[in-house]
Write a structure and sequence with these properties.
Blueprint: H1 6-14, H2 18-40, H3 43-59, H4 70-88, H5 93-108, H6 113-128, H7 132-142, H8 147-154, H9 158-179, H10 184-196
């Protein structure tokens, strides 16, 4: 079964082939789970989201119509699951928009789900190691707050916020360059989009 392509497996699944479904599940469960976990940081919810996706794939197998690669289809399904979770938690539209935009930016700049997950983890690890004030500046900026708004929330000068942003940017660039030297320019452009749009 491992020699079958995803397209072959999907065709078999349409004909009620349980073995084909199990193979597709084995190939992509972990990737989908890690993608959800990277955004939600909740193992139980991430597992539930992915489990529900695969249940629906089996339930709709006869009419399943995928116009992209199965991996991209699965990523989109995870993204929708994340949206539903955010909505159920009644987070603000701005928070949800920020999280989803960042997810889309990171994914579109990477070659695969694995790259996306790795890059997301590198950024999160780098931010988590920063002093508290740098971390707060980064998180507020990622939620699209202006320099003036950040300064007001943290009780610091506008110029101090700009200085902190410069330091945050430097640290994240260093972290990315160490891990992805061959894709440094691509990821740097992505980082600037996240921080300065």
């Amino acid at each position: 079964m491992k020699t079958y392509s995803d397209i072959d497996l999907l065709e078999c699944i349409r004909d009620d082939d349980h073995a084909a479904f199990n193979e597709l599940f084995s190939r992509y469960w972990q990737k989908a789970y890690k993608s959800a976990l990277a955004r939600l940081d909740d193992e139980s919810v991430s597992q539930d989201i992915v489990q529900e996706i695969f249940i629906k794939i089996w339930q709709r197998r006869a009419s399943l119509d995928i116009h992209t690669s199965f991996e991209n289809y699965l990523y989109s399904a995870v993204r929708l699951g994340v949206i539903s979770h955010f909505r159920s938690k009644k987070v603000t539209d701005l928070q949800m928009q920020s999280a989803l935009e960042r997810m889309s930016l990171l994914h579109s700049a990477t070659d695969s789900l694995n790259d996306y997950i790795e890059l997301e983890q590198i950024l999160e690890a780098a931010v988590s190691c920063m002093p508290e004030m740098l971390k707060q500046v980064y998180l507020l900026k990622a939620e699209h707050h202006s320099v003036k708004e950040i300064a007001g929330k943290l009780g610091i000068a506008d110029q101090t916020v700009k200085n902190y942003m410069g330091e945050v940017s430097r640290r994240l660039r260093t972290a990315i360059k160490e891990k992805y030297p061959e894709k440094n320019l691509t990821y740097l452009a992505l980082l600037m989009a996240i921080l300065y749009k």
